[in-house]
Amino acid sequence: MNCVGHQSPGLWTHPRDRSRDYKDLDYWTSLAQLLERGRFDGIFLADVLGIYDVYRGSGEHAFRQAAQIPVNDPLPLVPVMAQVTQNLGFGVTCSLTYEHPYPFARRLSTLDHLTKGRVGWNIVSSYLDSAARNFGLPQQTKHDDRYEVADEYMEVCYKLWEGSWEDGAVIVDKNRKLFTDPEKVHEIQHYGKHFTVPGFHLCEPSPQRTPVLYQAGASRRGKDFAARHAECVFVAAPTKTVLKNYVTDIRNRATGFGRDPRSLLFFNLLTIIVAPTEREARAKHQEYKEYISYDGALTLASGWTGIDFGQYSPDDRLKYIENDAVQSATESLTISDPTKIWTVRELANWVGIGGLGPLLVGSVEQVADALEEWVEETDVDGFNLAYAVTQETFADIVDLLVPELQRRGVYPTEYSEGTLRQKLFGRGARLPEEHAAASYRVRHEPPVLA
């Protein structure tokens, strides 16, 4: 995230943490180069509009602990990081709640051009009332209503990306002084319940047209959205039971939308503390724990769930309360895994390093074993790695863990060619025909000769 305290509130105070440099381009270019050296598929840039002010009814602790505030726009970072890398992908979180799809589609097409097809979009609808108020609304839109808007938003984007410009529309013929064949560019004529977009897409087709689609919603309504639209699904499951059930559910739902269930890749949030020996890793973990902020962790947890944990004592147990925040976060901590009952104190310690995902601590061999076990037991495809201390966490993974995974043959030693979609799926640069977006492509049948 383009901020200081992302998923490990309080650890920005660690003497080796560099997140205070988030405003400097060198911070991001060096991170991108580090990740590419480690053959990471991409860097996933989270974002949020609004401040975490649910905890104790104010934003005081968000400001004190830099809990995702201050936060800058992630999109300008992408071209800068793309300039110093050749293969690293960029998954960018952009909320569809407060930006009209017409200019947004242009922004993403521009990024896809500038990165030569290495951009992905993490589709989210904002969940903080503080964001809604600053856009002139009294409160956040109801949870399920946001998905209704999101479905139409996607339809508009698909029409712009896939259906406005035909293949071959761009001619670039200097002799004829013809850049674009106007007969091959079409108005999308969208007149819907929430959006009216009658005209043309402003950008010529980018390498992927539609960016790789990430989606992080895991509520009951969100699962249907993911099964229909997502290519990569970001999950924040704290236990294997929660993750396995979720992956199975979404794959089954995808079949109902006419999709190959294996055409979706699942990435679980995970934090890794690794060292040459278990003793060294445990010592590092213990060192990190000294910097956890109890209030900072509960500030984030309260914002994610919509529950003010400041009203409970540390030993109170969590229970499910439905609201219009991130319902999946509440479900995963309460009803998704009946074998795990959390107290508020346990939640704070859990979120304190890496957020809601699991934490792996151990030697290189132990962590590699654990990663393989998560894949085998849950059917997850990979991991979205949070950091405890930046950029130390990633440097340890690249220098220590990646070589071990490569030695085992479960991690690539080289990048494949092509766009982000081609690298991830080993297929064409564009979305497959079975995807919902394909139905909006311009199709001109050849004339039938009598």
Architecture overview:
This protein has 450 residues and is α/β, with parallel strands linked by helices. It has a single domain, classed as Luciferase-like domain (TIM Barrel), CATH 3.20.20. It contains 15 helices and twelve strands. The strands form three sheets. Strands 1, 2, 3, 8, 9, 10, 11 and 12 form an eight-stranded parallel sheet that branches. The protein has a two-stranded antiparallel ribbon with strand order 4-5. A two-stranded antiparallel sheet has the order 6-7. α4 packs across α6, α6 runs parallel beside α7 and α13 crosses α14. The longest helix has 21 residues. The chain is globular, with a radius of gyration of 22 Å. It starts with 24 loop residues before the first helix and ends in a 25-residue tail after the last helix. About 1% of the residues have low confidence.
**Euclidean distance between termini CA atoms:** 61 Å
Shape: globular
In N-to-C order, the SSE pattern is HEHHEHEHHEEEEEHEHEHHHHEHEHH
- The averaged pLDDT comes out at 91
Distinct helical segment count: 15
Q: What is the CATH fold-level name?
A: TIM Barrel
Compute the number of strand runs. Answer: 12
Query: Helical proportion?
Result: 25-40%
Biggest sheet architecture: 8 strands, parallel
> Which stretches are poorly predicted, pLDDT < 50 over at least 5 residues?
323-328
